Amino acid sequence: MQDREVFDEVFGVGGDPRRELRALVDWIDRTPVADLKRRHDAAEAAFRQIGITFAVYGEEEAAERIIPFDVLPRVFSAGEWASLTRGLEQRVEAINAFLLDIYGERRILRDGVVPADLILRNPQFAAPIADIRPPKGIFAHICGIDLVRTGPSDFFVLEDNARTPSGVSYMIENREAMLRLCPELFTLFPVQPVDGYPDALLSTLRSVAPDRAANEPVCVLLTPGPFNSAFYEHSFLADNLGIELVEAADLEVRDDVVWMRTISGPVRVDVIYRRIDDDFLDPLVFRPDSMLGVPGLIAAYRAGNVALVNAPGTGIADDKAIYSYMPEIVRYYSGGEALLPNVQTFRCREPEALSYTLDHLEELVVKLVDGSGGYGMLVGPTSSRDEIERFRAALKAEPHRYIAQPTLALSTCPTLVEQGLAPRHVDFRPFVLKRADGITITPGGLTRVALREGSLVVNSSQGGGTKDSFVLGDRSTMQSQSLEGMHQSQILPDLFTDPPLGGSV
Predict the structure, then answer these.
(1) Is 16 buried (19+), middle (13-18) or exposed (0-12) by CB count in 10 A?
(2) Contact yes or no for 415/74 (Cβ under 8 A)
(3) Measured distance CA(170)–CA(50) in Å, rounded
(4) Beta bridge mates, 435
(5) Strand, helix or coil for residue 404
(6) Is 117 exposed, middle or buried, given 0-12, 13-18 or 19+ CB atoms closer than 10 A?
(7) How far apart are CA 495 and CA 330, in angstroms?
(8) What are the phi and psi torsion angles at 321 (to 5°)?
(9) Running DSSP on this structure, what letter comes out for residue 311?
(10) Which of 179, 181, 185 is nearest to 36 (CA)?
């Protein structure tokens, strides 16, 4: 089962189980594959029944899909997590300092650390809000930092997600599934709980409310609507936060104040957790043809009458060309070296990097600087000659739109596939919440797995799946995990109590 050319997070490099995960290996060995498949089928049936789906744009058939779920967990030791936490805190603090700077004094541009044109001419630079200081000076309240691993202690940041990071609902639902499907694993391991995320997020939203509403701020989640690929997550989070899920038609702005229409009359809104990109937020400021935004919203934000989470303008931190400067950005604002390094990156806007990329396309991964979801990407070693030549032409025509990176030997985890158990490549998205008084990182995250043999693309839209991510704690201080007291909408159906042998419903 072990691919000896890469680091497996359970079986190491040589195929011998890692000592700290011996208990997991023993569990795998004594659990028949048929039983694992039965549990997998139960999870799939339950997820389908409660509607845990995502939309695939551009496909008429099977446009709504469930994300495949793997019952073999990924495990992080307490020491690994402590190291990651320090690096994540440093990076998110630097991202916020960077955003506050480029929309304010622009010291980093004057000092020549980052090219000014890369910021000021960037489509993601929100010039209309450049003179607005967000509440408490925080731009990116919620960040999802994508990490990859290549060895026992070799973690790298693959990309930053500060605009509208998604996937946290799957982190929570995956844990609930594992508690029901594989409760014995929570006896074997002191797994830290993840179900505190909704409370931590609500606390983060309330922390940036206008002063007049400091005690009981009204928070809402603004969604583009049910046709958005992440709508399940929007409704899940609103329900678990205990806040209203609203669309643009539910809100109006009068005298620079945001009001929510209700059957009892208008209710003043203090904080908006927006899951809409900047371009569509306010047709009076950004795209005039937007039907998803609220006219006058930015005026209310400018007046300090409403907080927007994440703040407008954060999208520029997701740009992959900006990502390539993150080691310098972290050093500039923190005074130290980045604890979590970047993957080596070639900026194709630079002639020397472009020349190298064109000469080594068969070896590199090439990405659009504003791409996401696994689209607009070339994986050289697995691409056809025609695909490579198409990218070569695109690079020559618009080199500034691309970056290139070496093809990493991403770590693998044992995964249940059609043929049984096999190693599959994984990445990891932890979720970081930033408030004025500190940072909260949920001890877990979204592990995405490339289910196709040999594939390095983990995105759900490209056939990837998910795993639960166990972060181990000190057993003596751990509280027992339980489904008791959780919101009823979170409870997965009783299919898990007696998993069916068939997976379809």
Answers:
(1) exposed
(2) no
(3) 13
(4) 438
(5) strand
(6) exposed
(7) 47
(8) -70, -40
(9) P
(10) 181
In our burial notation (b when 16+ CB lie closer than 10 A, e otherwise), range 63-89 reads eebbbbbbbbbbbbeeebbebbbebbb
Residue 88: predicted pLDDT: 98
The structural domains of the chain, with segments of one domain joined by +, span 19-343+408-478, 344-407
pLDDT tens per residue, range 303-317: 999 999 999 999 999
Closest CA to 456 of 346, 367, 345: 367
Q: Which two tokens stand for residue 191?
A: 């797994």
Q: How far is CA 377 from CA 46, 166, 380, 403, in A?
A: 33, 20, 9, 10
Handedness of CA 124, 130, 132, 136 (dihedral sign): positive
Q: How far is 8 from 150, CA to CA, in rounded Å? A: 9
According to the model, what pLDDT value does residue 49 have?
Answer: 82
Residue ranges of the chain whose pLDDT lies below 70: 1-4, 53-65, 372-375, 459-463, 475-505
Residue in 353, 350, 402 with CA at minimum distance from that of residue 376: 402
Distance CA 288, CA 283 (A): 4
**Burial class (CB within 10 angstroms; exposed 0-12, middle 13-18, buried 19+) of 381:** exposed
Q: Please give the order of strands across the beta sheet that includes 257-260.
A: 251-254, 257-260, 267-268
C-beta of residue 428 within 8 angstroms of C-beta of residue 146: yes
What is the model's pLDDT at position 373? 56
Dist. CA 74–CA 87, nearest whole Å: 20
**Calpha distance 29→17 (Å, rounded):** 12
pLDDT at 482: 47
Q: SS3 of 364, please?
A: strand
Q: Peptide bond before 310: cis, by omega within 30 degrees of 0?
A: yes
Q: What end-to-end distance do the CA atoms of the chain give, in Å?
A: 31
- Rounded CA-CA distance 2/424 in Å is 10
Q: How far is CA 198 from CA 168, 202, 432, 498, in A?
A: 10, 6, 12, 29
Question: What phi and psi, each to the nearest 5 degrees, are found at residue 279?
Answer: -55, -25
pLDDT (tens digit per residue) in 200-219 = 999 999 999 998 877 799 99
Confidence at residue 339, expressed as pLDDT on a 0 to 100 scale:
98
Longest Cα–Cα distance in the chain: 67
Domain 344-407: give its CATH architecture. Answer: 2-Layer Sandwich (3.30)
**Does residue 449 contact residue 465 with C-beta atoms inside 8 Å?**
yes
Residue 147: φ, ψ to 5°? -115, 150
Give me the residue label for tokens 């009892």. 264
Instruction: Quote the pTM value.
Output: 0.90
Cα angle 475-478-480, degrees, rounded to a multiple of 5: 115
Q: Evaluate whether 119 touches 125 at the Cβ level (below 8 Å).
A: yes
Alpha-carbon span 331 to 321, nearest angstrom: 17
